[in-house]
Amino acid sequence: MKSCFFGWSDESSHNRGRFRAIGMISHPCEMKNEIEKYINNVIDGSVPDERELKWKDVNKFTFKAYKGIIDYFLREANKEQIRLDVLRWDIEDSRHSILGRDDNKNLQFMYYKLFRNVICRWGGGHWIFFPDENGFIDWEELTRYLKKLECKVPLKEELNIEPIKGVSSKDNVLIQVADLFTGMSIFSKKNFQDYQDYMEKKNARKKEEDEMSNFERRCEILNYFNKECKAKKKGVSLESKGGLETRNPKTTNINFWPYKPQVEEDKAPRR
């Protein structure tokens, strides 16, 4: 019987700021109820209302929920159950710093790169993708490109992809989880020096969680994630790379992947 997989994805800052990213949570289809139940229990035990989790706005309730979600991904989940993949790019590199860059088409290209990478990590199979809904991506065209993947790379199983359609992040908790790690990837790169400054000075401040700003809470979450990755030997670097980056994605189920121009001719699409 062919393996079946779900992929839940979201983007962050795709058309603003220097650093931009998309991320995906992927897992075997039969794990859906178990994973969602665990994440929903974490949220229900931390957040007093039914608000949607958003990395851009971390309060004292979502702060606790994010720590619980990180615990799940680093302590409970393994490579056979679930993957986290985040692709980040820099619009000031040689690929993107061009006149007339088409950010929407470039976003679609990056989605293709991410989806392709995740499919190859799992080895093919039957795929159902749930990206956060937006009006920037031609999902039909992206589906056609992905269906050609089997002809280009060796896969363990025959590839089948259901038509991709955007869904609401509010109704799908694993898209909210993708938003957490995608936003964290950008934050780690964009604010790395400010993060280091905060970590050096925070002991002198000794603030209670209730007194922390949104920025300070995000620094604390990044620091917690970084420490747990090291403790669990997930192969994710922060300090040495000046932002989250996975050294060898073949050995771990957590892949923070900075896109780098492949050749001189590798340029973003133009309008």
From TrEMBL:
Stretch forming the signal peptide: none
Pfam families tied to this protein: DUF3800
Membrane-traversing stretches: none
InterPro entries: DUF3800, EF_hand_dom
Domain EF-hand: 132-152
Molecular function via GO: calcium ion binding
Ranges where the record places region Disordered: 238-271
Biased composition (Basic and acidic residues): 262-271
Protein name: EF-hand domain-containing protein
Source organism: Methanothermobacter defluvii
